[in-house]
Structure formats: C-alpha cells, structure tokens
Specification:
Radius of gyration: 25 Å
Helix content: 25-40%
Shape: globular
Strand order of the largest sheet: 12-13-9-8-1-2-3-7-4-19
Number of helices: 15
Number of strands: 19
Structural class: alpha+beta
Number of domains: 2
Oligomer: single chain
Length: 467
C-alpha cells in the first residue's frame, strides 16, 4: 500500500519547508540562494537530477548528461549546507537517466565531496534499474500495461533494452529517511515525488505536497524568471502551499505558478503519479505578496499503484551533413524543394547500393523553416532570409551511413528547384562535410507496471561515511 493511501484518512498537522535549489543537479546551484533558504527555515533540501528530455542515449549508455565538475560543484554546496543545517538532502534521478551506473557515478562524487569537506553523512542510495527477467515475469503475470502509442509488451522488445528503470514514487525516500539517512541519492524517480516525499512523511496535505512538488520541480522556472534565478522555497501545510523564489530579485505570479501544470504535462488539471492522480481543477491561486503565491483547493485521488517503465537500447548508426541555402527561388518554395530533393536522394541511394542499403533512412530537416516542430508551415508564410538543411542518414553500420552520405553529397552543391535554369549554389560549413554521429539510441518502453509494494522494485544500498 502506498504512503498516500495510508495517509488518506489521517489528520494532517505538519508544515514543511522545502528548499529546491535548482531544477536539476549540475545546472548551477547558487550559494546565496541556498543560504537564504536555510535561513528561512528549510526542513529539507530536495531536487531532481534527470529526465528523458534529452533522449534515449543517457539511459541506454548509463553516461550522465552533465559534466562531473558541474555536478561536483553543486553537490559540494548542497552537502555543506545540509551538514551545517542538519537537514536531509534528497536527489532524484541521479546522473540524468537514473539507471544503476548513473546513480553510482553520483554516489562516488558525493563520497569524494564528503571526504574533501570533512563531513560524514549517512547516505542511502536507491536503485530502480530492473533485470529483464523480472520485467518479463511481470509481463507474463499481466502486471504491465502499455501507454499510448505503444502496444502490448513482448519479450523481444524487452530484450532490445540495454537498461530498464522503474520510476519511483516518494515511498523509498521516506523509508530511507526513517532508517536514518542524511542524504538520499535516488535512481529514476518522478520529478514531483522527490519534492513531495519529505512533506508527506511529516504529515503535510497529500494533494498540496504533490501539487507543490509539481510546481517546484524545475526550481525557479515556475517564477517570472526575469532574473535567471535558480531555486524556490516551498511551504506545504495541511491544506495549502506557498511558493516563492529564493532570489530576492525574482517573483512568482499567479500565472507563472498555475501555468507550470502544463510543463511536460498535456493536461493542465490532472497529473498522474505513482499511486494516484493530482487534480487541480478547483485549485485557487492567490498572491501573498509581490513575490509569493499561495495555492489551495488541490485534490488527490488514490489509484492502484503503478510505476512507469523506461527502457532504451541501441538503434542504427548515423552520419549527418549540413548545408546553408540563401537562394531566393528555393527559399520561396521550401516544401517543394524538400520533397524533390528527398525523392532524388532516395533514388540515388537505391540506384547506388541496391539491396545493400537495407533498412536505411534519410531525413532532411530545414532549420529556419520547420525543423523543430516538423509541422507544415501556414500558407502565405514569408520566406526566411536563409535556412540550414540538416541531412541525416541512418543505416545498420557506420560505414554504410557514411557511404550513403557521400553518395548524396553531390546533390547538395547545386540541386535545383526547377531544371532548365542556371544552377544555384549552396554552402557547406564543414570539410569534410560528412560527420559521423556513431550509434544512436531509442526508447523501447512506454509502459507501467503494477506493484503491491512501492519498494518492491527498489534496492537500497547504504554508504556510511562515518566509518
């Protein structure tokens, strides 16, 4: 049974102040903001350290997105502040992906920092990476369900994943704190859960704890953010929460706070989390002063406990090329140019390689036109002054991807919009023009697994730096 299920009928009494120093570990904690939050009575420091925002590579390889120096700098500030204030430090989704290798990487940095600044915290490390045999057994038992747009899970899909993680809720963090942890370094965790854990443990309102966690997950991104501030301070009570930026030069507004429900969430009123759904349909947002917003009226609906599964594995190899185009005739008909060039390139590959090309792919992404969204540009849109076209060849081997790019290369010098006219000229910014990206990676799982116990798929390791 989830913690929130147990608390659903219990009286709520405790007010908790959560210091969220930055949206993600390694982005850049500000010492003065942390000091201000500690002085304001923070009971806990909590923050996220990862997501799937940057693609499948970090989960598939176990390599962190941010550099070691940046993560160590942030950890040094936070661990020193935690030791001085004698409050817990919780970090979720360590190393970006939260797989075991990424979490261990952050663990080792934390131990190094503890030794360097002569502190001896008791560290709990939560691992949520899953063995493929466990996931297969869960699937056979009917415990795994697909999320759109994927279908039922197969052993073949599971085997394509080099790493699979289950997204934790707050319960493993609470269990670690209750067992005496000073610092909790978590594997893959919902962004919201790591912020909600300590208020929930202390008996703050369930809905308010989750809603506060959602608003504060990215630090000062929920503020107007004209100053580029990093962190926020959240005060969670029995039936409300307040949120303010840690920077005195920054402010939260009703719009900036309420709008954060749409961050990485398609529904502005409902958010699904392990064990329930946060409903903010009737939430009321009111300014307390010119920097602080108070939120009431959030609701929590208890649901069967599920954990989202993320799995990633190897994909094809890629080679890319980049060209710049200023030709006004081409710029006036970019969609037509794209289609004609793409068709010519496909024909070129098939004539050159035949069956050897295998399951290849060529894409053309026109930056300055619609490369980011991929959506058609409205009719009548003004032509851009120039565009960059990114050519991407994907193939089963690096050699093949590069040979495909080389075969297509001549078309990027002068390919005309209309034949029979003087040929245009385009610009290559690099020589050689082919850039090998190596193997790329893909997500294979978008599923949830039902569990009877929120700790069932979590392993806890203790690092006692006092010895």
């Amino acid at each position: 049974m989830s913690l929130q299920s147990k608390l659903a009928g219990a009286p709520m009494t405790a007010k908790t102040t959560v210091l969220v120093p930055v949206g993600s570990l390694g982005v850049g904690v500000r010492l003065e903001e942390v000091q201000r939050g500690i002085a304001a009575g923070a009971n806990v420091i909590a923050l996220d350290a990862g997501s799937t925002d940057s693609g499948a590579a970090y989960l598939a390889t176990g390599v962190a997105k941010y550099n070691r120096e940046a993560v160590k700098r942030d950890l040094r500030i936070l661990m020193a502040a935690r030791a001085e204030a004698k409050i817990p430090l919780l970090i979720g989704s360590c190393g970006q992906s939260g797989n075991n290798a990424a979490v261990a990487w952050v663990r080792d940095i934390a131990v190094e920092v503890a030794n360097e600044i002569a502190i001896a915290p008791r560290i709990a490390v939560l691992y949520s990476e899953q063995d493929r045999t466990v996931i297969k057994a869960k699937n056979v038992q009917g415990d795994i369900s697909a999320l759109s747009p994927l279908s039922s899970l197969t052993d073949e899909t599971i085997d394509r994943c080099t790493h699979i993680v289950a997204m934790m809720g707050p319960e493993p963090y609470i269990a670690a704190l209750q067992a005496g942890a000073d610092i909790v370094l978590g594997g893959r965790t919902t962004d919201t859960a790591v912020l909600a854990a300590f208020p929930l443990m202390r008996g703050a309102g369930i809905a308010g704890s989750w809603h506060a966690g959602k608003v504060g997950e990215c630090g000062a991104q929920c503020a107007v953010n004209s100053s580029g501030a990093a962190g926020v301070l959240i005060r969670v009570d029995t039936d409300s929460f307040e949120i303010e930026p840690l920077s005195l030069a920054e402010r939260c507004s009703v719009q900036s706070v309420s709008g954060h429900m749409l961050y990485e969430n398609s529904d502005p009123f409902h958010l699904t989390e392990p064990g329930g759904i946060l409903d903010v349909t009737d939430a009321d947002y009111q300014p307390v002063d010119d920097r602080t917003v108070r939120v009431t009226g959030s609701r929590w609906k208890v649901m069967p406990y599920t954990m989202k599964l993320e799995g990633a594995g190897q994909g094809p190899f890629q080679t890319i090329m980049l060209i710049g185009i200023e030709d006004p005739e081409v710029l006036a008909s970019l969609d037509v140019f794209h289609d004609r060039l793409h068709a010519a390139l496909v024909e070129r590959v098939e004539q050159t390689f035949g069956e050897e090309a295998g399951d290849y792919d060529i894409s053309l992404r026109i930056y300055g036109w619609n490369a980011v969204s991929g959506r058609p540009v409205p009719k009548g849109a003004a032509p851009p002054r120039e565009v960059g076209i990114l050519f991407v060849a994907s193939a089963s081997t690096q050699s093949l991807a590069t040979r495909i790019a080389k075969a297509c290369n001549p078309y990027f010098f002068h390919f005309p919009l209309v034949r029979g006219k003087d040929l245009p000229s385009y610009g290559f910014p690099f020589s050689p023009s082919e850039i090998e990206r190596g193997r790329v990676y893909e997500f294979h799982l978008n599923h949830v697994v039902a569990v009877d116990d929120p700790l069932e798929l979590v392993t806890t390791e203790w690092v006692n730096t006092r010895e």
